Every structure is written in C-alpha cells, then in structure tokens.
Amino acid sequence: MKSTPNGLRKLVVSLMIPMMVTSGVATLPELALAKAGTGSTEVDNYRTPLKQPEYQHRTKQDKRDIPVQVLGINDLHGGLSTTGTAYIGSHQYQNTGTVGRLAAYLDQAQNQFKRVHHSKNTFRVEAGDMVGAAPADSSLLAHESTMHALRGMKFQIGTLGNHEFDRGLPEFNRILHGKKAGAGADALVQHYPNEPTNMKIVVANVVKKSTNKAPYGYKPYLIRKVKAHGKTAKIGFIGLELGSLSDITPAKNVKDYKILDEAESIAKYDRILNKKGVKAVVVMAHTAVQTRFGETAGPTVDILHKLNKLDPKNNVGLYVAAHSHQYANGMVGKTRVVQALSSGKAYDDAQGYVSPKTGKFVGLKAHVYPVLSAKDDAKVKTNAKVAAIAKDADKRVGPKVNVVIGKTAGGQSITKSTTKSLENAIGETVVDGQLYEANKPGGLKADFAMTNNGGVRSDLIPNAQGQITWGAAMAVQPFGDVLQVVEMTGQQIQDALNQQYYNPAFFMQVAGLKCTYTNTPGGKQHAKVLKMTKTDGTPIDLATKYRVVISDYIHTGGDRFYAFKNTPTLGSLGTDSDVFVQYIKDMATANQPLTAPKPDRKIYQATGTTLTLPTSAAPVAVK
Prior knowledge:
Number of strands: 31
Low-confidence stretches: 1-36, 609-621
Shape: globular
C-alpha cells in the first residue's frame, strides 16, 4: 500500500474500543458524545453506483418530479497522489485515492445518473479542508496544484474548513481565484501557473467583525435552478464552518472574524431560502460525524437536533459533513448525513428528486463509495487531465522532496499507531527531536518537550533503501508551527497533561518526563494524572519552574490546551518542521538511525475499573 503523505495522522485510539480513526484540526478536533442522541444508518455494500440497485432505473417519479444528483467530497487536504485504506461501513478497500482516480469516479457517477435519468442536474460540492496539512506536491506550491485539480474535477460549490485559514484567509482567497503570489514567495510558487478554480464559496457562519458580513464577497447560500420535462424548481446550498474554529486555528488568522452558531445559522438561512421559494436545501458543513456500530453520532448530529428544535419545518434534505475524516451515512430526523473519509479516498453520491409542485426533496438517497485503484478496477480509466496535474506537481517539487537526510533502523517506518495510554512512536520521536535540538550546545536549554497529537500528521516512512527523505520528514509535521521554549510550573504541566483526558481527540506526546495516570469513572475527564517524574525518576515539583518546548499553536490554547496560554516565552527554536529535519540530519551525522521509542512515558495505574470510552462515542476529528 502506498503511504499517505499527509498521514491523516492514523490514530488508532483503541482505548478498549475497536475503531479505526484518523486524527488530524480537525487529525483529526472533536471527540464528543452526541448530546441529543444518534441517527439511524444506511448500509453501503457496493463499490460503485453502477451496482447500486436503486440507481439503475427510472421510475414513475421521473415523469412528474425533477431528478437531481449531488456529488460530494470533504477534507481533500491536497492529497493529489495520496493513497490509503478506505473503511466504508463493514468493508475495507486497499490503495484507494489520488485525484486522477477520484475525477474518474465522479465522471462515472455523473454519467450514470445522466444515462438513467436523462438529467443534467448534477452538482459537485466539497465541505472544506481542500488544502492544508498536505503533502509536498501541494504545500510547496502554495496549494495551487490542488486548486488546479479541483478545477479539473469541475467542483462548483464549496465551503471553508479550518485549514483554509492555515496561511490566512487572504492567501486562500488568492489561490481560489488564481491570483499571482507576492514577490516574497518561493521560486516554486512564483513559477507555478495561476488559474481560478471557478468554485463558489458559501459560508453562513463566518463574518468579519468590522462589517458583520462574510469576507471576500462569499455568500451564506446559493440558489440553483433544476429542470426536467418543462418544469423547474430550486435548490439552496448553505455552507458552514465548524463552530470551534478558534480553538484549532492560529489566533492571528481568525482574530478578524466571528464564528456564529452552526444550527442558528442554518435556521436563519433556511427561512430566508423558504421565503425565496426554495424548499430543497443542501448543507455543506465542516463539522464532524461518524457512522459505526449501527449509529451515526457526533457534533453534526447535535447541530441537526438543535436545528430541528429551532426550525421544525426546515427543508434540509442533505448534509455533507467533514472534519473527522470518517465514514458516515445515516439519517438524523428527515436529513440524510454523509461523510466520505478524506484525502480523496472516497466520495458521496446523493440522488433523488425535487418536486416541482412542493419544491421539496422527494426520495433522496445517498451512498458513499471508494476511489479504487486502477489495479482493483481496471474498467475505470484514470482521468488523464487531472492525473497530469498531480504528475506535474510531483515533478516540480521532486528535487527538493527526494533529498536524503537520514535513515531509520532497519529501514522500518515509525508509525502513528496509538496505544491505549495515548502514546505513539512518531509523536514521541518528534518531541525527542525537539528536546535534543533545544539542548544542543549554545541552544535554549529545556527540561521537557510537549506536542499535541494534531501537530503530527503522518508516519515517518523511509524509501525502499531505508532512507528518510526531506519530503517524508515534512509529511510528519507539515504545518511549520514555530517552536518556543516557555517557562511553566510543575502545576501548569500537570494541568496540561490532565486536559488531554477531557477529550480523547486531543492528547499530548511528551519527552523528558513520565506520568502515571488512572481512570476517573463518571467524572468530566475520563482519567487524571497521579504523579510526574523526569525520565530519570526525579519527581516533578508542582511549585518549581521548568523550561518546556511547545509550538506557538498550543501556546495560544490550540486544541483546548489552555494550560499553555500566557506562559512566558524564553526564546524560539524555529519551525517544527525545520527542527525535525535538523534532528534527523544530526542523528545521521552521529550514525544513529532513528528507532521507534518504547511507549513507556504514560503509565496506567489501575483502580479496579477498566479505562474505556462509551461505544456511542463520536469520531475523532482533526486539527
């Protein structure tokens, strides 16, 4: 299986629960119980819509109603060439992904719909995180290669995710419209051709503080006409950003905006659309959801329950969700909810009708399908035009990406597979490197290093010769967060460690210290720290001040690690990605191949009750 360069930070948060999750900012941002209940589920057993029984034939409805199709993706994350395993319902598909294959399957689905229903009423939509936390063939080109691919795949309507804010919304708006980069941009970006995506951005709950209006002329909704056999109707598309954007995005990038309540925003614009004669509504929202164990749960479910209380007569028929990188297909009340994993490994295909008499959706069905490899489905020919965009991007960045900087012991990958104690080898390798670089001669000196799991995006995967390339290292930490050495008391360090036990989506990787924890059944946090020591066993005193390496992201309370906020900064080490690369180089110079650390930094002390999470827990979302 080809590796996923952006990693999807594979977080198998087992914690006694047999679930595969991908953590990302939402590796994965909100693991929470669905406070208002769960939704029913749909079973997806087919690999393509060509095999889906209800998609094969016209019905009597075709004579009186208007056939429509919505093809959706979410969380592409610049995954031009990314492949990986897709878990859809109870099925597992290997080697899924790449934009060339995704484009081919979207074309196949649209052509099938057109052939069966003689209809051109197809809409291609996306639900945020088009860019960010991406492989080098997107990130080194300022993600313009991804925007070219979206244009090539003919996406018409999209909304914002948290990663559209990574480099500031002005930069995202630049690449959306294909404007030239500034004079200070890297040569790779300067020489990359500029093209507008031709995609309309809708977002109902992000407004500028100065104007109370959406930025850059984005609209809260769009209306599109559909027609068949001489009759017409309208469909409304509402876009939503996740409400917790400020928790998972650098403060400087969101300080000018207000993020409004998701359910209230849908209710507001659903009523406006209703007054305009639009009674068939699609929501594209960067909010988390997951279907597993026969239930659909997560923040999206909560939003829809709240919406149904605020506006019981709302007309939301389809909700295209995102952010948690999970599979979802279920019903919440009268609304079909879908999510198609991430990085182009899957897509959703919703088909149904709009009644020209009532204006409402009728018989709307939705399914999620894998993007299969050419080997697994040779009948579907890769879209050559879109595949060429990815190939060109790889060629442009290749000289930089393929530079060898070190090696791993035995040529083994160092992975993000996460233990029950919330430790993973690559995360601990990262913080080991940060602590090492801080304590080099002439460095800032530090006692400990700590990072949030969301800042570590990928396994470290060597090439066939067991060598670590620059691109492989950058895939592990693609954000370029600035590392700072801050001063913290032992109490503040303990508070930070305890904060990881409020929400298992957010946890810490640590270097230089060990902690013992136990479970706390029935409490607000599912576990708590009992004691902390340095690696050599020396107790950490709660009143003593220590020097800790952290990123500027969590220094501002990112991922809800508020214990780091306002701690005094003693100096900067540079970006996390540069520090990690330098660490690998230093280990190579010392002839010390990187080895996966032993997971012994968080020690569980039993209290007679098994540490576990409820099986109805919603999905891990992503940074």
